[in-house]
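re: ur question from yesterday

yeah so i grabbed the chain u mentioned. its 179 aa long if i counted rite. heres the sequnce exactly as i have it in my notes:
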Amino acid sequence: MNKEIVVLIGGPSSGKTTLIDALKEKGHTCYPEISREVIREAQEQGIEQLFLEKPLLFSELLLEGRKRQYNEALKEEANIVFLDRGIPDVLAYMHYIGDSYPAFFDKACQDHKYSAIFVLPPWKEIYVSDAERYENYEQAVLIHEHLMETYKKYGYSITEVPKDTVENRVDFIMKHLVK
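ran it thru and got these structure tokens back, copy pasting raw so excuse formatting
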């Protein structure tokens, strides 16, 4: 069986981390979102919002971390590995803020291909802001649109996960993967 590297995408507070945690509890191999780690490290160094203050540096750190996750996922024994966000997310966020980026960002998207992309749509009823999530709900919707556009640009077919219980969302994803 071929290795499947599956990415969960969506705007802030759409349920990705909750879903990754539920998949992990069921014994699946999962990699967490790395942006919170990058943000916390910057805050420890006195930079409150690295993405807002130095977007290119923040994006380069995310790009390297997501490439590392992809390469580690390839080495996993599990046939299916789930990632909370993928490399094209970095470009989508750069598009969202209207910033440009070096050509190696695009090359990273072309060189690291995922097996399946599942999107969690904006969901106002579960939206929450916190110390690392500064966007409001309307901004989360715009980010979602940029994510969809960016992943489609790289040729991905995107499956939308319905707004439902965590258990039903997990079942939905697994049914679509095991055919």
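noticed a couple things. Strands lie at 4-9, 29-31, 80-84, 116-119, 158-160. also The mean pLDDT is 90.
anyway ttyl
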